[in-house]
């Protein structure tokens, strides 16, 4: 009983701070603290993602949408993978990529173009950004029987939209085909 009372009291205090102190809200929601703040907001079960987004300014509400929907996609992705539903797993990867672009406002024109090309490539189940900036990359989940065709398509199409940038890649090897390795283990 005591824990429930404390959660309600905490939720009320945070709600008050957010509503009445926009400067504190802005500080709490700075990019470096965004994820931990949303984690705190997830703790009280009575706070839905829609409630949190309602408290925030438009730009931060979009970022909250990405954060909450990404958490949901991860859970759904685990289920899709465990059940062998590769098509659904790929759809979730692509939804993550789109949310990164639209809601979290990640990416630059060359990366977004690469993401869009990957989605059109043959055999691609899903695509998204990977990395934390500083020359990140896109990854695609591809049917192994169509990997070469997908790579050729991406290489050709990306050179059309970004010829100067593509020309800077050593050997013009824009696409790397990788196979999964062994999972982490203790040696």
Automatic annotation (TrEMBL):
<dbReference type="InterPro" id="IPR036554">
    <property type="entry name" value="GHMP_kinase_C_sf"/>
</dbReference>
<dbReference type="GO" id="GO:0005524">
    <property type="term" value="F:ATP binding"/>
</dbReference>
<keyword id="KW-0547">Nucleotide-binding</keyword>
<dbReference type="GO" id="GO:0006012">
    <property type="term" value="P:galactose metabolic process"/>
</dbReference>
<dbReference type="Pfam" id="PF08544">
    <property type="entry name" value="GHMP_kinases_C"/>
</dbReference>
<keyword id="KW-0808">Transferase</keyword>
<protein>
    <recommendedName>
        <fullName>GHMP kinase C-terminal domain-containing protein</fullName>
    </recommendedName>
</protein>
<dbReference type="GO" id="GO:0016301">
    <property type="term" value="F:kinase activity"/>
</dbReference>
<dbReference type="InterPro" id="IPR013750">
    <property type="entry name" value="GHMP_kinase_C_dom"/>
</dbReference>
<keyword id="KW-0067">ATP-binding</keyword>
<keyword id="KW-0460">Magnesium</keyword>
<keyword id="KW-0418">Kinase</keyword>
<feature type="domain" description="GHMP kinase C-terminal">
    <location>
        <begin position="83"/>
        <end position="158"/>
    </location>
</feature>
<keyword id="KW-0479">Metal-binding</keyword>
<dbReference type="GO" id="GO:0046872">
    <property type="term" value="F:metal ion binding"/>
</dbReference>
<dbReference type="GO" id="GO:0005829">
    <property type="term" value="C:cytosol"/>
</dbReference>
<keyword id="KW-0119">Carbohydrate metabolism</keyword>
């Amino acid at each position: 009983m005591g824990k429930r009372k404390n959660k309600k009291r905490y939720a009320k205090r945070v709600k008050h701070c957010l509503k009445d102190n926009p400067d504190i809200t802005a500080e709490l929601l700075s990019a470096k603290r965004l994820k931990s703040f949303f984690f705190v907001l997830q703790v009280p079960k009575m706070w839905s993602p829609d409630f949190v987004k309602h408290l925030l300014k438009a730009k931060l509400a979009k970022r909250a949408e990405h954060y909450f929907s990404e958490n949901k996609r991860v859970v759904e992705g685990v289920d899709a993978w465990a059940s062998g539903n590769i098509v659904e797993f790929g759809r979730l990867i692509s939804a993550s990529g789109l949310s990164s672009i639209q809601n979290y406002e990640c990416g630059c024109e060359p990366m977004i173009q690469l993401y869009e090309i990957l989605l059109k490539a043959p055999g691609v189940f899903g695509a998204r950004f990977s990395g934390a900036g500083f020359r990140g990359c896109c990854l695609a989940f591809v049917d192994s029987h169509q990997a070469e065709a997908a790579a050729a398509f991406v290489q050709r199409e990306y050179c059309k939209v970004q010829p100067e940038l593509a020309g800077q890649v050593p050997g013009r090897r824009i696409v790397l085909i990788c196979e999964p390795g062994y999972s982490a283990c203790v040696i």
